[in-house]
Amino acid sequence: MRKKIVAGNWKMNKTMEEALILTSEVVHMVKDEVASDVIVVLGVPSIYLTTVQKYVEPVANMGVAAQNCHQKASGAYTGEISAPMLQSIGVDYVYIGHSERRQYFSETNEELAEKVNIALANGLAPIFCCGESLEQRQAGGFLEFVASQLTDSLFHLSEEDFRKVAIAYEPIWAIGTGLTASSEQAQEMHAYLRGHLASKYGQSVANDTSILYGGSCNEKNAQELFACPDVDGGLIGGASLKSREFTNIAKSF
Ligand code: PGA
C-alpha cells in the first residue's frame, strides 16, 4: 500500500525564531490530531534542518526534508549542500526538481537524474517534482510532457531504488498563484503518471508509489483533492507556513 504524505515546503521563508514557533506548533498538533498513517514532512531551509529535526524525530509519523541537494558528493561548489551532509545530520527526505529550481537555477532533467542518484546512495528519500507550465497546458501534450520528466530523471533506476521515490505533480501555473488544479485535472494527471510508472516498473510498483499534488493546495481544497483515487497527499508551499492550516491539510484524507 502506498503512503499518504503531506509535505510542507517553506521555501526561503521564516527567521530562526519564527521557524521554532511554527515547528513546535505543528509537532504538537500533528501528535494530537493527525492520523498515524499520514506522514507529515517539514521541508525547511537547510540552516534550520538540524534544529527542526530534533523536534520532529520523536514523532513516528514526521520527517524533515531538504529542499535541494547538489549532484556531487563533495568538492569545490561554494554555497552548495551535499547528500552525504544531509544524511550525516539525519535528514529523511529531499525535494528534487522543484519548478523553482528548474526555472531559477536552470536545473535540467539530466542533472536531476544525478541528484536522485546521489540522494538514494546516501539514504535520502527523494520527493521528485514535475509539472507543466500554463503555455504547455494550453498547447496540449502536457500529459506526455510531464511523463517525460519522469522518464528522463527516474527511469534509469532499479525497481528497488525506484520504490524509495515519491512523486509530486505540481502544475507551475498553480504554484503560489491561488489557482488550483481542479480535482478532475489533478486526477487525470495522477492517473496518467501512474500508468506511465506501470509501463516501466509494473502495476504493483506503480500502485505502491505515492503521487502528491502541489500548487495552491490549502485547507479548503485539500479534502476534495485527496479524495481523488490517485492523489496520495500534497506538497504544500504557502499553506505550510501556518501551523493550523498545514495541520488541517494533513487531516484532510
Ligand atoms: P504553493 O507551493 O502551495 O504555495 O502553491 C507549492 C510548492 O511550490 O511546492
Ions, cofactors and other ligands present here are: 2-phosphoglycolic acid
Q: Assign the CATH topology.
A: TIM Barrel
Number of strands: 8
Low-confidence stretches: none
Structure overview:
- There is one protein chain.
- By secondary structure, this protein is an alpha/beta fold.
- It has a single domain, classed as TIM Barrel (Alpha-Beta Barrel), CATH 3.20.20.70.
- The chain is built from twelve helices and eight strands.
- It has an eight-stranded parallel β-barrel, surrounded by six helices.
- Helix 1 links the parallel strand 1 and strand 2.
- Helix 7 packs across helix 9.
- The two termini are 15 Å apart.
- The model has no long low-confidence stretch (mean pLDDT 97).
- Bound molecules: 2-phosphoglycolic acid.
- The site of 2-phosphoglycolic acid (PGA) has 13 residues, from strand 8.
- 2-phosphoglycolic acid binds next to strand 8.
List keywords for this structure.
single chain; alpha/beta; TIM Barrel; eight-stranded parallel β-barrel; 8 strands; binds 2-phosphoglycolic acid
Q: How is the secondary structure organized here?
A:
Elements: E1 4-9, H1 16-33, E2 38-43, H2 49-56, E3 62-66, H3 83-88, E4 93-96, H4 99-104, H5 109-121, E5 125-130, H6 134-139, H7 142-154, H8 159-162, E6 166-169, H9 183-201, H10 203-208, E7 211-214, H11 222-226, E8 233-236, H12 243-250
Parallel strand pairs: 1-2, 1-8, 2-3, 3-4, 4-5, 5-6, 6-7, 7-8
Helix pairs in contact: 1-2, 1-12, 5-7, 7-9
Bound molecules: 2-phosphoglycolic acid.
